[in-house]
Design goal:
flat, mainly alpha, single chain, 3 helices
């Protein structure tokens, strides 16, 4: 099995679905969105 196949199989599993749901809940929080925006800004400024 390739890595992509194993990953997609895991994401379809109950444990994978739990992790996806948890990630979505965490991303919905405003403080986490602000942290991601700061990280994106920092990373984009490094490329210049």
């Amino acid at each position: 099995m390739s890595l992509v196949q194993r990953l997609s199989a895991f994401l379809r599993s109950p444990r994978g679905q739990q992790l996806v749901d948890r990630g979505r809940r965490e991303l919905a929080k405003p403080e986490n969105q602000a942290k991601l925006k700061q990280l994106a800004t920092r990373l984009s400024s490094r490329r210049r």
